[in-house]
Amino acid sequence: MALKTVPTTAFPDQKPGTSGLRKKVPVFRQPHYVENFVQAIFDTLPDKAGATLVIGGDGRFLNRTVVQTTIKIAAANGFGRLLVGRGGLLSTPAASCVIRKSGALGGIVLSASHNPGGPDGDFGIKFNARNGGPAPESVTAAIFERAKGLAEYRILDVPDLDLDRIGETTLGGTVVAVIDPVADYAALMAELIDFDAIRRLFAGGFRMRFDAMSAVTGPYARAILEGALGAAPGTVVNAEPQEDFGGHHPDPNPVHAKDLFDLLHGPDAPDFGAASDGDGDRNMIVAPHLFVTPSDSLAILAAHAHRAPGYAAGLAGLARSMPTSRAADRVARKLGIPAYETPTGWKFFGTLLDAGLITLCGEESAGTGSNHVREKDGLWAVLLWLNILAATGERADALVRAHWAEFGRDYYTRHDYEEVESASAEALMQALRDRLADLPGQVFSGLTVQSADDFRYVDPVDGSVTERQGIRIAFAEDARVVYRLSGTGTQGATLRVYLERYDRDRHDRDPAEVLSPVVAAARAIADIAGHTGRAEPSVVT
Ligand code: VG1
Ligand code: CO
Fold first, then answer.
1. Which DSSP letter does residue 282 get?
2. Which CATH entry fits the domain spanning 3-180: 3.90.180.10, 3.40.50.300, 3.40.1390.30, 3.40.120.10?
3. How confident is the model at residue 18 (pLDDT cuts 50, 70, 90)?
């Protein structure tokens, strides 16, 4: 077996962000770029000899090439067994599931999630640890340090493997097993969710549409919804994963999943609509004539989770990322369980889940999940919704309104200013930080600032501290603004402004109208136009 040690020059920019290393495809196509980063990951793993590694991705452009490269580097680094999704495919939650089930040392997950794919699109490489979750900050920092000093990598000089046939091959001392990417995941869903109840729901004429956005969830959704659960053929649309996601932006929100959104708001709306993103960890839920914000979806799932077999014993606790609305906290209070507030990014939920402190968690960015894996899980959220609808016999929109009637409504929106010049974005954040102490008591658009800080997180399990995770401003009128810079963008900076306002009693107002004073205050406080030159955000979700 031709084991080669290849001299290389380190790249200074291989710093993982919110969710792994994400860059434009041409960056990853530079000679040795992928090899260096993968070797840097392996160099941080002391106990890889003979260990199992899971490899797969969302099927975007470069996915197959990088899977082949990763296999050859992993074999050269002494892993004992590689589990590779057929076709190089594994959704992010399925990768997490397979890592946990197989007792692997970890996994390499290839994805740039909801970002566009194709030769000019984005690509990404993420390392997930033994618990199935994204590597914590201490590990990603070590990978970055290693990458900066890398001088060589090891690789097997062998032909590409056939990724499309299930079965095992041997590469030197390493067994490479091509596995069905859906089987383990589907089996886990059948344990957690009442499939019989959902089967009866569909048999009774319940209609839904699931938009897989030409991304990785298609095969999973088809197998489970149309296969195991008996939804009508054609329920899953855009079900074939494509390297460029059909030229679309595989981001499940009202802007990029507009067809689904419009269908659910039209005259022939089915009973339920859902979509997922490039790598299958996000979900969008649309009830007939009612978009469900991800923050509300988390709260509603938490309130009803006990109706599903996997959560019948109740929830240990809940967690949400800091910019996510406080709707979930209200449910936690009613259930008498703790609620945690974490920085943005799924890696921060890992310690809480591992320690058994929480059962469900979620983010405003269309991510919801539970202790069944260590990633957010789009299809799982959809199945839990279906389980709840089947168990209550309620329409989805009625369920949401009943929730608001009990808990009040957290009106919510997010404004993104994309591809802003990095220096201007940094300057905006710094200017905000400099003013934090002066803001309380000041009035903007009729709203009085009550508190202002830069979110600092102390992990309650391991005590690790993460600073500067977003500026949050609370108003006396039960409204809140959060500002932070994206950690997943690949061009310039993206400023995210999260806006919310709570109303106990009035639930049928137009969110844009309710939030307009909060928007005006947010723009004035940060002087967004002055710093960025933008009068309006590029995306509103
Ligand atoms: C975004 C979201 C964050 C999410 C992350 C990864 O990060 O805001 O909530 O965890 O993407 O999701 P940022 O740093 O750009 O705001 V995914 O579906 O891209 O793995
Ligand atoms: Co994703």
1. B
2. 3.40.120.10
3. confident
pLDDT (mean) for 482-489: 90
Distance from C-alpha of 295 to C-alpha of 310, rounded to nearest angstrom? 22
The number of the ligand 1 atom at minimal distance from the alpha carbon of 17 is 14
Distance CA 498, CA 293 (A): 13
Place of tokens 């993968």: 38
pLDDT category, 1, cuts 50, 70, 90?
low
In this chain, the answer to whether the domains covering 3-180 and 409-540 adopt an identical fold is: no
Number of residues in the chain: 541
- Tokens 């190089």 correspond to what residue? 88
Ligand 1, closest atom to CA 281?
A: 18
Catalytic residue status for 113: yes
Q: How far apart are CA 124 and CA 28, in angstroms?
A: 8
Position 489 confidence tier, pLDDT thresholds 50, 70, 90: confident
Topology of the domain covering 409-540: TATA-Binding Protein (3.30.310)
Enumerate the domain spans of the chain: 3-180, 185-407, 409-540
Q: How far is the CA of 469 from the centre of ligand 1 (A)?
A: 13
In short, whether 128's Cβ falls inside 6 Å of ligand 1 is no
**Residues 60/245, Cβ–Cβ less than 8 Å:** yes
Please give the distance, rounded to the nearest whole angstrom, from the Cα atom of residue 156 to the centre of ligand 2.
31
Share of the chain above pLDDT 90, in %: 96
pTM: 0.95
Is ipTM > 0.95 here? yes
Q: What is the pLDDT of residues 188-227, one digit of tens each?
A: 999 999 999 999 999 999 999 999 999 999 999 999 999 9
CATH number of 185-407: 3.40.120.10
